[in-house]
Amino acid sequence: MYPPILALDIQSLVSKFGLHTDVFIAHLIAFSIVVAVVVKFGIKPIQEQLEERRQRIIDGEEMRAESEKMLTDVKLTSDVIIKDAQELGQSELTNAKKIAQNHQEESAAKAITEAQDILSKARKQAELEAAQQKAALRGDFARLVAEATAQVTGKILSEEDKREINASAIAQL
Asked: pLDDT 10s per residue in the chain (173 long)?
């Protein structure tokens, strides 16, 4: 396809483009030195940094996976702890309800006992007051009977007569 170029000899090519071998070799050496310097001081450090960054990314991914595993373990542990705490709380609540019910039953029994004691004391007091009033009424009745007898008979009764009338009246009650 390009036969005229291929047909040219090297000498005509050199004269046509101005190719000088000593300059070319100097440029080739300079280019090789620049490439060597760029590779040694530019590309290798960049490659080392990229490798270091790649390793940090790998380490970070491993740490992330480990952290996720630890987080899952912590969640499971916290779920177990929460479940245990709920069960303990429920048992404590049940226990507290039982204690409260026992206390309520004891309080009710104590209140009933106290009420019965109060009623018993009130009955005794009422009986005592009734007995005192009966005695007072008997005395009043006996006195009234003696006075009525004295008025009916028209006689002044002696103390002994009053006692006999009082005893007779009280015996009939």
From this structure: 455 555 456 677 667 777 777 888 999 999 999 999 999 998 999 999 999 999 999 999 999 999 999 999 999 999 999 999 999 999 999 999 999 999 999 999 999 999 999 999 999 999 998 888 887 877 777 777 777 776 677 666 677 776 777 777 677 66
Tokens of 47: 């490659």
- Over the range 88-117, which residues count as b (16 or more CB within 10 Å of their CB) and which as e? eeeeeeeeeeeeeeeeeeeeeeeeeeeeee
Degrees, nearest 5: CA angle 137-130-113: 175
DSSP 3-state assignment of 157? coil
- Ordered by start, the domain boundaries in the chain are 3-172
